[in-house]
Design goal:
There is one protein chain. With about 280 residues, the chain is an alpha/beta fold. It is about 35% helix and about 25% strand. It contains 11 helices and 13 strands. The strands form 3 sheets. The protein has a 9-stranded mixed beta sheet. A hairpin with a 2-residue loop joins β2 and β3. The longest helix is centred in the C-terminal third of the chain and has 14 residues. The radius of gyration is 19 Å and the shape is globular. The N and C termini lie far apart (about 50 Å). The structure holds 1-O-phosphono-alpha-D-glucopyranose. 1-O-phosphono-alpha-D-glucopyranose (G1P) binds next to β11.
Length: about 280
C-alpha cells in the first residue's frame, strides 16, 4: 500500500493571462459556477485519500487562505438568519482537509515554489498539483488517485500526461517516451516547452507524484525557460521517472477559452443548473 499522504498545490503564479481579474485575486480563485477552482483540487486530494495539504500562495493574495479558514461567527450568523444550508457549506470547505499555507516571496517558477515546501513534506512520496490545471474525471477515480495506484505498480516518481495536438506541444513539458505498458510510460527525457521537434505528443498536465530526491535535483537545477527554476529540468535529473496517461478532462483555467469550457461542462453536469444551462445553449444555437 502506498504511503502517499500529502499533497502540495502550487497556487502562487502571476496569472498574467487572466488580467485584469488576477490583479487583485489569484486565478485559482476563479469560480466554476459558485466554487473556486482550488476547491476542486482540494476535493481531488481528499477523494484520493489525502487530507494533509500544503498550498503555496502569493503573499499579496491572501484570499485562498481566507477561503479555507473556518469562520464560526459567520456560520452562526447564516444559521440565525435562516440559512443553515450555507452555514453547512462554508463549514464543509474549512473542515475538508488539514491545510497549511506557504507564502512564496518571488515568482521564480514551480521548482522554486515546491522547494519552499521541503521541510513540511518529510520522507514519504507526495503529490504535486499545479493550481491552474483543473482535471475532472466525472465517473471514475480522480487523477491523483490514478497516480497513486500507478505508483504502487512502478514505485517510481510519476507525472500525469495526456497527448495534445502537435501545435500545442510548445505550451507544455513534453516527455520522450521509452517502453509503454498500458497507460504507464517509461520517461527517457523531457523538454520544457519545445519550440520545434517535440520528442512526443505526451504533455505534462499539472500532476506529479514525487519522492524527496526531487529536492536534491532542484538544488542542482539552474534557471531554465523564462529564467525560472523549472520542475521539468529537475525531473530529468531523477534516476527513474514514469508517466501515466491519466483518464479525465483537463482544463487550463488560466486560459480564457478553456475556463469557459470548464464552466459549461461543469454547469451541464450539475443538478441545480444543468437543465437550465442546456436549454439556454440550445436556445442560442
Ligand atoms: C507548467 C509546467 C509544464 C506543464 C504545464 C501544465 O507550465 O512547467 O511543464 O506542461 O505547467 O499546465 P506553465 O503552464 O506554468 O507555464
Amino acid at each position: 500500500m502506498s504511503k502517499v499522504n500529502k499533497a502540495v498545490i502550487l497556487a502562487a503564479g502571476l496569472g498574467t493571462r487572466f488580467l485584469p481579474f488576477t490583479k487583485a485575486v489569484g486565478k485559482e480563485m476563479l469560480p466554476i459556477i459558485d466554487r473556486p477552482t482550488i476547491l476542486y483540487h482540494v476535493e481531488e486530494c481528499v477523494k484520493s485519500g489525502i487530507k494533509d495539504i500544503i498550498i503555496c500562495v502569493k503573499e499579496d493574495k491572501p484570499e485562498i487562505e481566507k477561503f479555507f479558514t473556518r469562520d464560526e461567527e459567520y456560520e452562526k450568523y447564516l444559521t440565525s438568519t435562516g440559512h443553515p444550508e450555507y452555514a453547512d457549506v462554508i463549514k464543509y470547505v474549512s473542515t475538508l482537509a488539514n491545510i497549511q499555507f506557504v507564502t512564496i516571496d518571488k515568482p521564480l517558477g514551480i521548482g522554486y515554489s515546491l522547494y519552499q515546501c521541503k521541510d513540511l513534506l518529510g520522507d514519504d512520496p507526495f503529490i504535486v498539483i499545479l493550481g491552474d490545471d483543473l482535471i475532472i474525471n466525472k465517473d471514475g477515480d480522480p487523477v491523483t488517485k490514478q497516480l497513486i495506484d500507478a505508483y504502487d505498480v512502478c514505485h517510481s516518481p510519476l507525472i500525469g500526461v495526456q497527448t495534445v495536438a502537435p501545435e500545442r506541444t510548445k505550451k507544455y513539458g513534453i516527455i520522450k517516451p521509452g517502453k509503454v505498458d498500458g497507460r504507464l510510460i517509461e520517461v527517457k527525457g523531457m523538454i520544457e516547452k519545445p519550440k520545434d521537434n517535440p520528442p512526443s505528443l505526451y504533455a505534462c498536465l499539472g500532476r506529479y507524484l514525487l519522492e524527496k530526491d526531487i529536492f536534491t535535483a532542484i538544488e542542482h537545477t539552474a534557471p531554465g525557460a523564462g529564467n525560472e527554476i523549472q520542475l521539468t529540468d529537475a525531473l530529468t535529473k531523477l534516476d527513474t521517472l514514469y508517466a501515466y496517461d491519466f483518464i479525465g478532462n483537463r482544463y487550463d483555467i488560466g486560459d480564457k477559452e478553456e475556463f469557459i469550457k470548464a464552466t459549461i461542462d461543469i454547469a451541464l453536469s450539475r443538478e441545480d443548473v444543468g437543465e437550465a444551462t442546456k436549454e439556454y445553449i440550445e436556445s442560442i444555437k
